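Listing S7. Sequence submitted for prediction.
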Amino acid sequence: MPDIHEGGCLCGAVRYRIVGEPRLASVCHCTFCKHGTGSGFRVVTYFDEAAVEIISGVLKAYEYRSDESNRWLKLEFCPTCGTTVTWTAEWSPGGRAIAVGTLDDPNWIKPARHIWTRSALHWIAFPSDVELVETTPQRANSVS
């Protein structure tokens, strides 16, 4: 039987279920991710779109285009509390990302790489056992 994980937004209005393992798990240090989270980085975790089910609530969408690549990202967030729960990206057709911090138990996600490290805050200490990529990874759709 496949692994099943659940999570939701801060206020609890939006809940989701994921079946299976992520196709990608990375920590992103780009300016967009820092601004979008209000933090030093974003944990990027993509699943096959069919593996993600919104089980309650309604998400509102915001589309952003990268000023460097001109590719789009569609962020989906709770209209009540503002929590970004999920997103899709032009570079990952058939994939859907989940914000790791919204998982009921985020500890099962183990990112194997940090991307956009050229934009990382100077005080970030990278684990010794992860891949470090200065900008966009060449194998962006691979599991890591």
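Caption to Listing S7: primary sequence and predicted structure tokens for the chain studied. The helical segments are 31-37. The longest strand covers residues 42-48.
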